[in-house]
Write a structure and sequence with these properties.
heterodimer, A: about 90 residues, mainly alpha, elongated, B: about 90 residues, 3 helices
Chain lengths: ~90, ~90
C-alpha cells in the first residue's frame, strides 16, 4: 500500500517526459532549431528511464528482476544527448 | 556495485552540466522556460546524487521520488506558462 503514491508519481513523470519529448519534437519540425531536436531526444530517454522505473518498482518486484542498469543507461543517454546538442550545436551557431 | 556508482555519479554530473548550459541560454535569451528547465535538471541531479550517496536500494522508500516529482511539475508548469504566453 505504501508504494501506491510513488507509483503514481513515477507514472506521472513518465507521462510528463513522454509529453515533453513529443512537444519538443513537434516544435523542432516547425522551427528546425536543432537544440529542440536534442532536447526531444533527451526527454525521450528520460521517458524510457521513468517507464523502466515503473516496471522495476511496481510491476516486477526487485529481487527477481533488477532493471537498475538499464535505468541508469537510459538516464545517461538522456544527459549525453542533451550535452551533445549543447556542445556541438552551440559551436556551429 | 562499482559500475552502478560510476554511472550514478556520471548521470548526476550530467544533469548539473545540462542545467548550467540551460542557465547560459536563459541569461542570453531571458526566456524563463530555460531557467525553469535548469532548475528541474538541478532537482533531478540532486535526487540522483542523494540516491547514489545514501545507497538506498529501493527508491520509493527514501522519499527521493519527491525530487523527481518536483522536477517534472516544474517542467509542466514551464510548458503551461510558455503556451499561455504564446497564445496571448
Amino acid at each position: 500500500m505504501g508504494a501506491v503514491f510513488p507509483t503514481i508519481v513515477y507514472v506521472l513523470c513518465f507521462l510528463t517526459s513522454a509529453c515533453c519529448a513529443w512537444l519538443l519534437g513537434r516544435s523542432y519540425r516547425r522551427s528546425q532549431v536543432r537544440l529542440l531536436m536534442w532536447s526531444s531526444i533527451c526527454f525521450g530517454f528520460l521517458a524510457l528511464n521513468n517507464l523502466l522505473l515503473v516496471l522495476d518498482l511496481a510491476v516486477w518486484p526487485q529481487p527477481e528482476v533488477d532493471l537498475r542498469l538499464p535505468r541508469l543507461l537510459m538516464a545517461m543517454a538522456a544527459v549525453v544527448s542533451l550535452l551533445w546538442g549543447f556542445i556541438w550545436d552551440v559551436e556551429e551557431e | 556495485m562499482t559500475l552502478y556508482d560510476f554511472l550514478s555519479g556520471a548521470v548526476a554530473f550530467g544533469f548539473f552540466t545540462c542545467s548550467l548550459f540551460l542557465m547560459r541560454y536563459w541569461r542570453r535569451s531571458r526566456d524563463e522556460l530555460f531557467l525553469t528547465f535548469a532548475l528541474a535538471f538541478v532537482l533531478l541531479g540532486v535526487g540522483q546524487t542523494i540516491l547514489a550517496l545514501a545507497n538506498i536500494p529501493t527508491e520509493e522508500r527514501g522519499s527521493i521520488y519527491l525530487f523527481r516529482l518536483a522536477a517534472f511539475l516544474l517542467i509542466l508548469f514551464a510548458i503551461y506558462r510558455k503556451n499561455r504566453a504564446a497564445r496571448n
